[in-house]
Amino acid sequence: MTVRKKAKLSVVVSNDKHRTNPKAETLHRIPNYPTKLVIYQLAASPYWWVRYYHNKRILRKSTKETDKRKAIEFAKRFFEEIVTGNLASLSTQQRNVSRFNDCADAMLEAQRQRMERGEITRITQDNDEWRLKKHILPHFGSCLVAEVDYFAVEKFLATLTKEKLSSATLTAYIGLVRKVLSYAQLRGVITALPRLPKVKREDEPRGWFKLDEYHRLVQRARDMAGEEYEVRRVEVKEGDETRAHLVTVKANAKNKQGVQVRRFSISKDLRNVIVFMVHSFVRPTDLKHLQHKHVAIIEDAEQRIKYLRLDLPKSKAHDGAIVTMKTAVNVYRRQVEEQYGLDKNRKLNKPPPNDYVFLPKQLNRDKALKELQQQISVVLSAAKLKQGAKGEERSLYSLRHTSIMFRLLYGEGIDLLTLARNARTSPEMIDRFYARHLSAEMNIDILQSKRQKKVRNEK
Predict the structure, then answer these.
(1) Sign of the four-CA dihedral 418, 419, 423, 426
(2) How far, in Å, CA of 196 to CA of 191, rounded?
(3) Do residues 285 and 315 make contact, with C-beta atoms less than 8 angstroms apart?
(4) Are strands 295-300 and 37-41 parallel, antiparallel or unpaired?
(5) What is the spatial distance between Cα 312 and Cα 319, in angstroms, rounded to a whole number?
(6) How many Cα atoms sit within 13 Å of 328 on the Cβ side?
(7) Which among 196, 119, 184 is positioned nearest to 154, based on CA atoms?
(8) Which residues, 6 or more positions from 270, have their beta carbon under 8 angstroms from its beta carbon?
(9) Measured between alpha carbons, how far is 39 from 306 in angstroms, rounded to an integer?
(10) Which of 324, 325, 360, 322 is closest to 340 using CA atoms?
(11) 143 CB contacts (<8 Å, ≥6 apart)?
C-alpha cells in the first residue's frame, strides 16, 4: 500500500495594497477649509495627494508636488473647482447668492420686508446693516458661502478681538454671520449650517444713579438747557495711522479743532425726560414712540391714587400697559404746559393725540432718540456722572435701571414679578441686569425686619 503525502501549498499574500493607503503621520488638514479636505502622502508615490469627501463620494487627486506648501495651494484650488462645479448645478436663483456678500444683501432685503411687517424693529435692521458694512463684508465679502466654516469665523473673530470689542459685541457679530448662513441654507446654497465658535459672554449691566446723583443730574440738565454744542471731527495720529475721532465742544469755545459735523443744543425736554423715565420704567425706545394718545391720567382722590397708564406699542415681545409713579403725572402735565400752554381757565390745553410727548417737532423718531442720547451724554460729562463707582458706563438707558433700582430700594413689599410685568421684562432679566448692583446691605432694614405677631380674637 502506497501512502501519498499531501503537498504543502504555500500562499503568498501581496502587501502592495498598503502602498496606496495614506501614511497616517502625513495626514494634514487645510486651515480655514472644511475638515474633510486633507493632503497626505503614499508609499507608492513621491507626491502629495489631496482628498475631499463630497456628495457621499471620496474624490482623490495627485498634486504632482513634493513640496508641502505647494501641495496645500493645489488642495485649495482643487476644493474651489469642486465647489464651483457644484454651483454650476444650482439654479440661477441659488447661484446669485452663492457668494457671501450677495447672500448678505439678499438676507437684508428679506429682513427689510419683515421690518415693514412689524416683525422686527428698525434698530435691529440698522444695526445689522452697519455691522455687515463695518467688519463682516470686508472680511468675507468675496468668499463663497460654502467656504465660511468654523475656522474661517475663528480667524474673523481674531481680527475683531484686536478692535477691543466687548464680548456682547463679538457675540452679536457671530450671530449675524450665522444669520447670513441660515439664509443661505434656506436658499439651498449650503445643505447644513457649520458649527461656529462661541464667545464666553459675561453680563455687563449698565450703571444706575444713586438718589443724590439723580438729583444732581436733574439740576444740571435744567441749568444747561439752551446751551449750544458742536460735534467736530478731529484727525488724531495713532502710531503710523491717522484716525478720525468725534469730539463734542461748546459752540462758543475758542481754538476749536477739526471740522464741524453737526450742531445741537440742550433742550428743555431733557430735564423732563430724565424725571419721567426714572418714574415710569420705560425704555428709551418706548420713549421715542410715546404719543399723547398712549397716555391716560388716572386719579382717585378718595384712595389718594394718581398715576399714568401708558398703553405703548408692543416692544421686546411685551404689550402690557405700564403704570407710573405719581411724579410722572406732574412731569407729563409740565411737559404739556410747556408745549401747548394753558387755556383761559388755567387748565391744560389738550394736545393732539398723534403728537409725540417729547421732542414733538422732530418727526424722525430715530433722530429724536439720538438727539436725547447726545444731549444727556454732554450733561453726564458736565456733572461728572459719565461713569459709576466701578467704572460702568452710564447713558440714557441708565435711567430705566435707576427706575427699577429705586423700586427695589425704596418700594415697600413690592414683589419681583409685579415689577417685571410693569417694566415689560422678566424677573430673570431684572436679576441678571437691572438689579445686578443691588446688595443685601442696601436693604438692611428689610433684611432685619420682623413679622408682627397675630393676635387671636378669643370669644
Answers:
(1) negative
(2) 16
(3) yes
(4) unpaired
(5) 7
(6) 25
(7) 196
(8) 221, 225, 372, 375, 376, 379
(9) 76
(10) 360
(11) 99, 100, 152
Q: Tell me how far apart the alpha carbons of residues 308 and 321 are, in angstroms, rounded to a whole number.
A: 10
Q: What is the 3-state secondary structure (H, E, C) of the chain?
A: CCCCCCCCCCCCCCCCHHHHCECHHHCEECCCCCCCEEEEEECCCCCEEEEEEECCEEEEEECCCCCHHHHHHHHHHHHHHHHHHHHHCCCHHHHCCCEHHHHHHHHHHHHHHHHHCCCCCHHHHHHHHHHHHHHHHHHHCCCEHHHCCHHHHHHHHHHHHCCCCCHHHHHHHHHHHHHHHHHHHHCCCCCCCCCCCCCCCCCCCCCCCCHHHHHHHHHHHHHHCCCEEEEEEEEEEECCEEEEEEEEEECCCCCCCCEEEEEEECCCHHHHHHHHHHCCCCCHHHHHHCEHHHEEEEEECCCCEEEEEECCCCECCECCCEECCHHHHHHHHHHHHHHHCECCCCCECCCCCCCECCCCCCCCHHHHHHHHHHHHHHHHHHCCCCECCCCCECCCCHHHHHHHHHHHHHCCCCCHHHHHHHCCCCHHHHHHHHCCCCCHHHHHHHHCCCCCCCCCCCC
Mean pLDDT score of the chain, rounded to an integer? 83
pLDDT in tens, 342-395: 888 888 899 999 999 999 999 999 899 999 999 999 999 999 999 887 788 899
The edge-to-edge listing of strands for the beta sheet with 305-310 is 295-300, 305-310, 322-323
How many whole angstroms separate alpha carbon 195 and alpha carbon 120? 26
CA distance 355 to 329: 18
**Cell digits of residue 131:** 455691522
Interval 38-55: pLDDT, tens: 999 988 889 999 998 877
Quickly tell me which residue has 393676635 as its cell. 455
Cα–Cα distance measured from residue 49 to residue 31, given in angstroms and rounded to the nearest whole number: 16
For residues 34 and 149, what is the distance between their CA atoms, to the nearest angstrom? 7
C-alpha cell at position 17:
495594497
Most confident range, picked from 141-150, 217-226, 257-266: 217-226
Best CA proximity match to 45, nearest among 24, 22, 74? 22
Mean pLDDT in residue range 124-134:
90
Report which residue type is found at 174. I
The end-to-end CA distance of the chain, in Å, is 129
Nine-digit cell string for 392:
460702568
Cβ atoms < 10 Å from Cβ of 405: 23
